[in-house]
Structures are given as C-alpha cells and as structure tokens.
C-alpha cells in the first residue's frame, strides 16, 4: 500500500453555523504543512477517484478542518468541522479540493485547500498466475511487490522467476529500466526478477505497487528427469534458457545403481503433441568423451534400467504429460 493523497469533503446543505473568527496559523507553519502534504500528493494523480474506506487528510490555510485523517464511510461520506457530513466518494482529488474551497468561502475569503490520501482501501491490485491465492487484493498503505505477493500466499513451486507488472499510465511509467508502454499508450508494462530481489542482488526492483496494478506470475519453464535417477521430477529453469544434460542429471541426484546411462534418451517436443527421441550416451558424457549438450525447456531426460524397453519410454512420457506424481524441484 502506499501512503498517498486524496481528498474528501462536501456538504449536504447550507451551513447554519455562525461565522466564528478563526485564528490563522503563522504563515511559516501553514506553508510548511502544506508543502509536506504536497510532497505526499505527488504519489497520487489529481484524477484519482476516492472510494469507500479510503482515508484522507484535508488541510486549508486559515481554516481548521481537523488535524486527524478522516475515513470515508461505507456510504461514501465523510464529516469535517464547519462543513458537516457530505459525500466524498466518486470525486477526484481536484474535484474535492474545489468543492471544499467553494464551501469554505462562507468563512474564508480565498480558501487554499489541499487534500491527500493517507491510506488506500478502495483500490484493488490483481495478482494472477502461479501464486497460492490468486485474486484481487486491496492496498492498505504502502506495499511493495514482495509484500503483495506475500498477501497472495506466495509463489507456487512451479512459478517462474520473472513477474510481469501492468500499470495504468495515469500512475506514471513503472520505475524500471525495462518498462515500456503498450500499443495503446494507456499502460506501462515491465518485468521484475523475483529471484534477484530475494537474493538481495537487485533490491531496487522491489517497487511500490499502485492501485489497479495487475501482477502476473507465469508458470516456469521446466526440464524433466525421470527413470533410474535418485530423484525424478521437473526442474525449474529460473532465468536460464536451458541447462546441459550433465547439469540436469546432477539436479536429479545422479544415477541409480540399476541405470543404463549409455542408453539414455531425450524426449523433445516437436510440432504438436508428439515427441521425438534423441539418443544420449550419458556414460560417454560422464567419462568426458562425449559432448555435454544443452537441454531445451520441456525436454525429458530418461535414464532407463539395464534392460530398457520402449514401452517404459512411452510410459515415462505419458507420466510427464499427465503430470501425475512428479515433484517440481527448485534450485
């Protein structure tokens, strides 16, 4: 969540309170307070539309409208000194400031009003993809990308290492080097490496999330190792485009005692659902005599037993396709 600006106010009828004299604050204090509010206001566009449960702060030179934040109630109304109860929801910051200033003219000759949002509660953030609790989450204060992902239950085991963020351009361009605008010019889009944030190698990518951001966590690309190995399953590629056959075998814990490495196979998807078989002499690679070549995303490395059968290969492929009983391993 982020502490941002917003405003609220308005009257439902003509005020009958007598125009009591108001002791104005010293000019230095008033301008200083307004500067602080203005600094916060830079975090939210003046076109931001207020909603129920948002918390706002209203400041006016030469008028006491209260010194505490005010929360918009479920009906969209707020109550302010002098002005009473009025509707604030569905108004932009600019509209609220203008409305408040107009109402204050009964008490102040030239009202100078600033409205800021201190807590967003009506603005959703959508988190979709490979998280445990995908859906819409409300911003409550300043929230970073990692905090929002935590609110969504964290990443699934097969989540990719890169997260895509889509933001309405009214909130400005996403503050990342790879940010670009979409074809319509209405959205800023960028990708973030969650792994780099968690490893503290790129903490600046843990940016603040804004209202109506869409955070998409794609499924990771995997390679699979099955057959006579210590731990069969899928292995997340992370930021790599691929890993070598020897690296994949190492991730699987090495060969089982009954393995026949010289008869290994890679099952690689071609066009369509069918896969082609590529012979791999793992024994030669392990001895340093054969070339350790790169596996591609979705490749299956199959290590047969000492008496391999083609039916076993097909069974392994079927198991991978169905996804039954396979463990996803993250490095």
Short description:
The chain has 331 residues and is of the alpha+beta class.
Secondary structure elements and pairings:
Elements: H1 27-41, E1 55-61, E2 70-71, E3 77-80, E4 84-87, H2 93-104, E5 112-119, E6 124-129, E7 135-138, H3 145-151, E8 162-168, E9 180-181, E10 187-193, H4 194-198, E11 214-217, E12 222-227, E13 233-236, H5 245-251, E14 264-269, E15 275-280, H6 282-286, E16 300-303, H7 310-322, E17 328-329
Parallel strand pairs: 6-11, 12-16, 13-17
Antiparallel strand pairs: 1-2, 1-5, 3-4, 6-7, 8-10, 8-11, 9-10, 12-13, 14-15, 14-16
How far apart lie the N and C ends?
A: 31 Å
Mean pLDDT: 81
Reading the helices and strands in chain order gives HEEEEHEEEHEEEHEEEHEEHEHE
Low-confidence stretches: 1-42
For this entry, what is the oligomeric state of its chains? single chain
- The number of helices is 7
Rg from alpha-carbon coordinates: 30 Å
- Tell me roughly what share of residues is in helical segments: 10-25%
Describe this protein's structure.
By secondary structure, this protein is of the alpha+beta class. It is built from seven helices and 17 strands. Strands 7-6-11-8-10-9 form a six-stranded mixed beta sheet. The N terminus is likely disordered.
Task: Provide keyphrases for this structure.
331 residues; six-stranded mixed β-sheet; 7 helices; 19% helix; rod-shaped
